[in-house]
Amino acid sequence: MRKAWFAPVLIVASIVVQLTVLNGLRLPGGGVPDLVLVVVAALAVADGPLAGAIIGFAAGLCLDLAPPGSLLVGQYALVFCLAGWAAGRLARAAGKSPLWSAAFMAIVVAAAEALSTALGLVLEPAQVTTAEVREVLPATIGYDLILCPFVLYVVVVIGSMLAEGLSAGAAAGGVLGVPTRSERGQQRRRRQQRRREPRLVHAAARTGDGWLSGGHERYHRRQPSARTRGRLRPASGVAGSASGLRHPGSAARTSPHIRLAGGRRGDGAIGNPVGRNTVGSGTVGRGAAPGRHPGMLAGASRQFRPRGSQPGGSATRQHTAARGPAGPGRGRTPIRFGGRRGDGTLGRAFGSASLAPSRRPPAAVPRLRPGTSRSALTTRSVPRVVPKVKFKTAAPAQPRRPAAVPRFRRGSTFGSPGSASGLVSGGLLSQSTFRTQRRRAGVPRLRFAAGRRGSGPPGGGMLGGSGRSPLLGPRVRIGKQPRFGYGRRSLLSVLVGRRVGSGWLARKRAGSRSRGWLISKRTGGAG
Amino acid sequence: MRDTRRTRVVLVVLLVVALALIALDYSDGSNSALRAVRNAVGDVFGGAEHGTGTVARFFSGGSSSASQVTSLQEQVVKLRAELAGAQLSKSDLQQLRKLLLVAGAAQYRVLAASVIAVGTGYQQTVTIDVGSSNGVTADETVLNGEGLVGRVTSVTADTATVLLADSRAEVVGAAVAPSGQLGSVTGPGVTASGSGLMHLQMLSSAAVLKPGDELVTSASEHDRPFVPGVPIGVITRLVSVNGALTEAADVRPFVDYTALGIVGVVIVPPKHDPRFSALPPLPHPGPTVTVTVTARPTAAGAGSSPNPTPGG
């Protein structure tokens, strides 16, 4: 998080500069750049739509009220609020692409300038006339657009400098999040050096699972070294959970923590009672609730299922059943099952082994780090057939409060959201709340990155592998599992550097068409 | 996408607040709460603008502290800065002197001030660095050494907002110099070139205009917002509109509204109408420049002798 004073200071400074310096300039073509608007848009690009809207409103109100202002109070507030929101929204759509961020920002700025003029025309016909607008507006927009990239650059660089020190600012300076050439070389060298070591998976969003998470491929390529510190997938891989997740205090994470998060769509074993005859990316609970959307169901069922192997069981019943015996045992180590799509066995193996986690004293829980391949797409990582597990005994944990047993949440029926160790289940607890709560309670934790499809041992899928439990019979080919939204590349996606619209596309497809259809389409078979 | 719902709620709330503020201000411009907020924010930002102006002045003016300058280069830089500062203050002095000349000629008592901020967008307003603590009140005339600048619209403790006379929203009563006929002058608004022509509309149909006539303000009621006798501009072109009852003309203002520096607020109006005494002195015909043109017989037109334009 950036320093909180950064945005207000920048806004006030830009207002003063606008009023004292810029407005007094006489530039060719008439009109002067609207620095405040550009700064608002840049801050919104950096901070997101919510912050953008608030910053825009505040800045606009200040500009309305600052001394030479003669327009109606609220005009600029209205326009800048909308502009901040829109810039943040579009920048989020642009992902990490600096080019698109700047382009969207420019569009927003131009539109906001036009909107403010239109508002003036309507509300202040005495001061603003069409003749004036025709003469001045094009030049004003032009100056704004010229100013845009520079202001965005400065805001991002200074912002990241304030947040993470000088080096981060410099890194952000090489075009806004894209690593510079030397950085990339460094990363490559580092990667080659530690090729034999287990490499941990960055976090939720990855190339393959775009249907759930808006992952930025580029982002992952950029940050493997930072993440190898043992920052694993922080939860059940909720959409976009970890890609934007930063743990300021992650270095002090001394307590081991086990987390096995819930099953997702496709991880056949954990809590996938129905999809046992599916290969992997089947539909969780499709049979249980046929009318519901599979994606939603995957989210809703992302929970600990102690008896997930029982096919056909109702998840609800299981939850309540599991909650009963586990309830009173406060002071136990929370265990989370981090099941992911395609790695049914992992969660399962640990799930069966650790259904009674309480016997393990919280202090001595090792931190388990299974080495998994980063991505199924990197074929170079195929020779790593043996799952690399690194056990590291962590320092004794000092839970500030008795650690809670796993709590299972379903819907909003459970009042307390598992403050210390509650699962991020069903997406009910947002990631941010979860984060703060986890930070607040220093419970021991063990987490491991779930394996990905194709990265595990060929036969077992013990640590990340097939989307199939070994209990369920022999493996079927795993190479041809359809991934929704994957492989579809449009021109826009190439430009942006990530898949565009894959989320809704996949959801749509998954809801409307059968998996077999997709397989057949891909393999060319009849289906 | 998380937080989207919260974002939307916040966005809608903020937009509604903004619209409410607009509606409030639109329906009741003299709302006391809004005015209090405006004053408070104006104090804060006015202070900031003051500070910025002071800093800029400090840098451009170059405080000549007698420090031991050893390096020659440093000395050169310092001398240059001093030179720039001297030039700036010379221009300030000139403006001030002109202002005092005008004020003396028309018997105004003025309070000198400098422009510290300029309005955004289509607002033709400036902020000056005197306020109610200096005795400035709303609806007072602001002028500089060239002529009419505008009028004070709102005042905070240390700043005042001036609506410029070249705004479209401003209508100034004017008197044409030789005859004293009355009309009204409207500003050109924001223009690309920065210096548009004002528009003069006469009141009487009997008025006769000709290019080169100069305009001064005619007295407003109780000398507010405009005191009489402040120069406005000079007629450059007559505008004939078919079917118009009265004459109209384009007026070039004396004041360059995009380069305002030192201005004066008329805090005590003159006892007598100064008439046209504050106008710039009429250009007296200098020695006539004789240009001898040898008329060729083939020239169709007769002797096209260039008129020597008298230098002002």
What would you note in describing this structure?
Chain A has three domains: 168 residues, Arp2/3 complex 21 kDa subunit ARPC3 (Orthogonal Bundle), CATH 1.10.1760; 278 residues, no CATH class; 42 residues, no CATH class. Helices cover 42% and strands 3% of the residues of chain A. Chain A is built from 16 helices and four strands. Chain A is elongated. About 51% of the residues of chain A have low confidence. In chain B, the strands form two sheets. Chain B has a six-stranded antiparallel barrel. In chain B, strands 6-7-8-11-10-9 form a six-stranded antiparallel β-barrel. In chain B, strand 6 and strand 7 form a beta hairpin. The chains are: A mainly alpha (527), B alpha+beta (312).
Which SSEs are present, and which pair or pack?
The complex is a heterodimer of chains A (527) and B (312).
Chain A: H1 6-20, H2 35-47, H3 49-65, H4 75-94, H5 98-123, H6 130-173, H7 181-193, H8 217-222, H9 224-227, E1 257-259, H10 294-300, H11 315-326, H12 344-353, E2 367-371, E3 388-392, H13 431-440, E4 445-447, H14 491-496, H15 502-512, H16 515-523
Parallel strand pairs in A: 1-4
Antiparallel strand pairs in A: 2-3
Chain B: H1 4-27, H2 32-61, H3 72-106, E1 109-118, E2 125-128, E3 141-143, E4 148-155, E5 160-164, E6 171-176, E7 182-186, E8 198-202, E9 214-217, E10 231-239, E11 248-253, E12 262-268
Antiparallel strand pairs in B: 1-2, 1-12, 2-5, 3-4, 3-12, 4-5, 6-7, 6-9, 7-8, 8-11, 9-10, 10-11
Helix pairs in contact in B: 2-3
